[in-house]
Amino acid sequence: ANKYGTKGKRYIHYDAHLQMMAAAQPFISGAISKTINMPNDATLVDIATAYDKSWKLMLKAVALYRDGSKLSQPLNSTSGLDELAQADTEEDEVNEQVTPQQVSDAVAAQAVRSALPNKRRGFVQKAYVGGHKVYLRTGEYPDGKLGEIFIDMYKEGTAYRSLLSMFAISISKGLQYGIPLEDYVDTYTYTRFEPAGSVQGHSNVKMSTSILDYVFRVLGYEYLGRNDLVHVKPEVKEVEGKTATQASLPMEIAKTTSNSHAMKQTVSFGMEAKDEARQQGFTGDQCGACGSMKMKRNGTCILCLDCGETTGCS
Q1: How many CB atoms lie within 10 A of CB 36?
Q2: Are 36 and 65 in contact (CB under 8 A)?
Q3: Which tens digit of pLDDT belongs to each residue from 152-206?
Q4: Checking phi first, is residue 260 left (phi over 0); if not, alpha (psi -120 to 50) or beta?
Q5: In the 8-state DSSP scheme, what is residue 310?
Q6: Closest by alpha carbon to 140, among 114, 164, 163?
């Protein structure tokens, strides 16, 4: 249906396909399994003409295919060498249009790696995700900015542990070359694959949809202050003046005052969380499984977007 390569001139016209089928059709009871190939420049008129001619030739069925009409196809009229030659030609044309100053600016704009000091601070977080033990270790720059992570799991296959380790290395290199942590957090939170489920060992993250979801919830919370990614919000610190006043009271009165203040603080926090959730389009209810406030109405039920818990019918 196409001229062969870049120098070919001859090709089989689609009309020849129809004529060959018409010659064989009288001797066959069923339809012929043959596709009529048409070139890329075939028009709607060509297609209509082909169908009309197949009817006049009394063919039982005709399938048409225009070259290049699908993103991928088993056969192509040009070879890989032809495509490479065309690509080289286009690249040469582009290079001719680029000035030396533009090349210099592009080289200067290349990312530069900011190496971490040999002695660095960070934290190690041990937790269980869906019953699987996970260790998350971080390394920080002197200003407290995250520069590297390590992820390790025990009682897992060598391949799985190695993939997690290599993934952590790639994230670390990206951070050191200037990729914002916010981009990683937005990309990998809410990813869903096993192991997943309840989280034990972290005071704020109680549910995750995958190991990566857990890791970047923790990183977003610890380094970006993303309280929207945790299920247990951090407690509000008391004002120093009130603390000093309570310390000067007798033990029993101070204890009673502290308990009363904590109760009021909890109620106030609960109402604020519900109001905030409603403002964001959620129902204001709290998930009984993971404590999340991200509850959405799903038909006649309510669905938790963090852990997937429902009220029974979704």
Answers
A1: 21
A2: yes
A3: 887 666 788 888 899 999 999 999 988 899 999 999 998 888 888 888 889 888 8
A4: alpha
A5: B
A6: 114
